[in-house]
Description:
Blueprint (H helix, E strand, L loop, with lengths): L8 H22 L4 H9 L18 H12 L3 H22 L5 H10 L3 E3 L1 H4 L6 E5 L2 E8 L10 E10 L3 E10 L5 E3 L16 E9 L5 E4 L6 H33 L8 H26 L8 H29 L10 H8 L9 H14 L1
Amino acid sequence: xxxxxxxxxxxxxxELGKEFERRAAEHDRxxxxxxENYAALKEHRFFAAMIPEELGGGGVSHADMCExxxxxxxxxxxxxxxxSMHQHLLAANIWKYKQGQGGADMLKNVADQQPVLxxxxxxxxxxxxxxxxxxxxxxxVTATKHFxxxxxxxxxxVTSAPYQDPxxxxxxxxxxxxxxxxxxKVLNNWSxxxxxxxxxxxxxxxxxxxxESAITVRRPxxxxxxxxxxxxxxxxxLIMSVYVGIAQRASRMAINFVKDxxxxxxxxxxxxxxxxxxxxTAELNLKDMVRITNNFDFKAVDQNGQDIATRKTNxxxxxxxxxxxxxxxxxGQGFYRSFGLERLxxxxxxxxxxxxxxxxxxxxxxxxxxxx
Length: 372
């Protein structure tokens, strides 16, 4: 199928989204991955949408992909969040390509094959986890990586592990691994409060061979590295767009519900106003995150990483506040699964667990301010 033009990507989101919405409750109830949705997204080349056109992709801007994810989340949060994980890995490589630092071959391959890219970065941060041992022409990796969204259908795992270099000491090495590699096993253990359709199973690596040529980043273990200024800046706007979309949907549901009530509580307008304030906070902080990323035209400086991390916390807290107030406005009706709001309430809880979690971000930012 031909790549859609820039004018009809959003039309496709609405068209497919209506279909995804019909399946959302079933996937939530059964803890099943949204594989039918992924098949439809792949058919319409969403997995290559953000890759530059000269490399075979759709040429969708970072800002427009944030919009796609925000709107898609209003139909099915799990589908949007899972897709954001693939997109943020692409985004880091698109930034490298646009900065003249390579990445073209990887992006061409994704544009051609559309493999599902799975990240494990959320749990790895500065220390990473697992172990690596030197082997002939590479390393043997043993680790268990949790919260690997899309791993139910994953094709390439983008991960890291600590390695004790005999000369440099403890390092963290980053690398991709095919899910078809010997020793890779998906544990099928994703049974969670929310985002149940993301297929975020743990992935076990048992003596998996990683060739030396596959190592993409080497960094000192436990120390902040400029690579995170890139990852945070491209990834967080994409991921948090999903939660803003969920908050917008919850707000709309609550307002539409209370408008139809003849005997609503006298304080409901005040709750609606408070919910609107929270939603505005989320929307404005997200808008500023997208501005900072500037469609990949930014430098990997600490200030960008700090600013994105701060705004991520603001967006997460505001989205949580919106959906909590929506539940209060809807009253007892919101407690019913059939109403649909409680699923949004459960899904939005995941916002707080993306890096950096609030207490970590406050410490991270506070230390940066005091140093500078």
